[in-house]
Write a structure and sequence with these properties.
With 198 residues, the chain is an alpha+beta fold. It folds into 2 domains: 52 residues, no CATH class; 141 residues, no CATH class. The chain has 3 helices and 14 strands. The strands form 4 sheets. Strands 9-10-7-6-12-13 form a 6-stranded mixed sheet. A hairpin with a 4-residue loop joins strand 6 and strand 7. The longest helix is centred in the middle third of the chain and has 15 residues. The N and C termini lie far apart (39 Å).
Length: 198
Amino acid sequence: MKYLRSIKAFGLSVLFWVQPIPGKSLPDSTAQGAELPVTAQAGKVSTDEGQHEFYVGLTDIVYNLGTRTFEITLKVFTDDLELALVESGGGEKIILADYGAEAGNDSLIFAYVAEHFTIFRKGAQPLAMHPVGRETELDVTWIYLETDPTQPLKEAVVSNTMMMEIYEDQTHIVHLRQGEKTKSTLLHRGKLTGTLKS
């Protein structure tokens, strides 16, 4: 039997299903939907009842009025991204903190992102995006992109399927900031795209 859990991650409450660890029972309050104290760290969620795998990424999209471009930051767990790159055809084990292989790793990362992340105006073609760079710091990798100049989006459609091919419970929290307005959505295998209206 699975139970619905709620945690706070990257500033949003996230609901997800948990399969109990064999031999461990969950408290009655969990079955009734009550929240448990949790801490998200490096792809795992720790509760008073033990550890459960939890896969989450953060997508931050900000409209820059000065350049008329969208600046995009994808924040993912490094080990998950390394596994996704190997699974998508990168070949041998990839270590993103190996800056001697940075150019080759970056080309793999940006090719992977181009295949799994899009943002477009509703009813139109995806916005053209260009890689800006990436940073890897221990267990987290930030990937930076920028679109061609464009007008703000009244209805932005965002898709982020990164790591969903390897983790069926992969989730992406998406924030879109245009001016003083911020809209958010949650993407997962049951909802591959989200429409954000400003």
